[in-house]
Specification:
Layout lengths: L1 H16 L5 H12 L3 E8 L4 E8 L3 H9 L6 H11 L6 E2 L7 H6 L1 H10 L3 E8 L5 E8 L8 H24 L16 E6 L3 E5 L1 H8 L5 E6 L6 E6 L2 H16 L5 E6 L5 E11 L12 E12 L9 H8 L3 H12 L5 H8 L3 H15 L4 H11 L7
Helix pairs in contact: 1-2, 1-7, 10-11, 11-12, 11-13, 11-14, 12-13
């Protein structure tokens, strides 16, 4: 029965990631699977307190806010699990392990002032790294008087965890541009492909088509195959990379795997495309708008060109969004475009002294809320939703 529950839950996870489902429902079903009376799923940067709480059940809203403000800093379990994840040793853990021995937990401020009043005596969970999406703390709890979590609950959460991680990475990459129709994926600055289990191309958005024509390590080619009507579009890859891609796509499309990532190299052996393979949520199929879960036999592939600098919005866009002057918008674009080459190069491109550029930057940081030069570059790159013209 637990196997069927896991499969059903993974479908709901991918549905929530594509905007068609409810993370609260995902969390409640995860609690039911593990026999927990309360739980939370978060995503973001725990150390900085920049956390989005996707699910909290059995924990009052005022307690959630208290955790966000203070108790996250003294939560021994999550803090130490995050340290493990940062060292590449993330794993599912339960109360009483050496990570946080019971004696230490029961003496802690977190237990006495926060967890005990809420009946959070036993925990099973993890903190999983999500790359650019940050970290994912997951905690499920049982009250005093109930048995603690054991090997079976650890196994069940371990089976769900890869899907939960991959879905949140997919959610982060698609952002608000997700649409029930695959045609809306043309608005993304990433390349997007939908492949069948043999790596035949079913859908390619505009950026993917551009990458396939631009002499990158991945090419889209038309080929005639026995048993097919007319010509189909397939991926042309180097042999070793095709084998890796085909295996990853097959496991994702046919075997219920959570997907994975790889880098494709050019003729000189240099990586020039980052590839993320994930299950295709049903809501992204125009003919399955009302459906949930994942599309069997197909996979979603996101492509990022590693050799190209991120596109920067036009000066007019920056002026409208942040109230920058024409000079400030020009400086912001020059700093972002020449990231890594120093402020002197950006000043020369703008035809101003470096001291003048720094004065403009101070005003730009104040208007945009950027914490510094690197933060400004990330902010501007993230604003570009339309791909560059071919």
């Amino acid at each position: 029965m637990s196997h069927e529950m896991v499969l059903s839950l993974t479908e709901e996870i991918y549905d929530a990631a594509s905007g068609g489902g409810d993370w609260r429902s995902v969390g409640i079903r995860l609690q039911a699977l593990l026999g927990a009376h309360s739980g939370a799923i978060m995503v973001g940067d725990p150390a900085a307190g920049a956390m989005e709480i996707l699910h909290h059940e059995g924990v009052p809203l005022e307690a959630v806010e208290a955790y966000r403000r203070h108790y996250r800093k003294v939560d021994l379990w999550t803090t130490r699990a995050a340290q493990l994840a940062l060292r590449g040793r993330a794993r599912v853990l339960v109360s009483g392990e050496m990570l946080v021995p019971d004696e230490e937990f029961l003496r802690s401020e977190f237990w006495n002032d926060f967890a005990r009043p809420l009946g959070m005596r036993w925990v099973v969970g993890t903190v999983a790294p999500l790359g650019a999406a940050g970290m994912m703390p997951v905690g499920l709890h049982r009250p005093p008087g109930r048995p603690g979590f054991g090997a079976e609950e650890r196994r069940l959460l371990g089976a769900v965890l890869p899907h939960l991680s991959r879905a949140l990475q997919l959610r982060h990459r698609l952002g608000l541009a997700v649409s029930p129709a695959l045609g809306a994926l043309d608005a993304l600055p990433l390349g997007v492909l939908v492949l069948d289990a043999e790596c035949r191309v079913l859908v390619a958005n505009r950026v993917a088509e551009m990458l396939g024509r631009a002499g990158r390590s991945l090419r889209l080619v038309r080929t005639a195959e026995p048993g097919t009507a007319g010509r189909t579009v397939a991926l042309a890859l180097r042999r070793e990379e095709r084998d890796a891609m085909l295996g990853l796509v097959r496991r994702t499309a046919l075997a219920g795997a959570a997907g994975g990532a790889l880098r494709l190299r050019d003729a000189d052996g240099q990586p020039n495309l980052a590839v993320l393979v994930a299950p295709l949520p049903r809501r992204l199929r125009v003919d399955l708008i009302a459906s949930t879960g994942r599309v069997p036999g197909q996979a979603l592939v996101l492509l990022r060109d590693l050799s190209a600098p991120p596109p920067i919005p036009a000066a007019s866009v920056l002026r409208e969004l942040f109230g920058l002057t024409a000079s400030e918008a020009a400086v912001a674009r020059a700093v972002a475009t020449m990231s890594g080459r120093g402020l002197g190069a950006a000043a020369a491109a703008c035809g101003i002294a470096e001291a003048t550029l720094k004065t403009h930057l101070s005003r730009i940081f104040a208007k945009t809320g950027a914490a510094g030069q690197a933060d400004l570059v990330r902010l501007l790159a993230g604003l570009t939703m339309l791909p560059p013209e071919p």
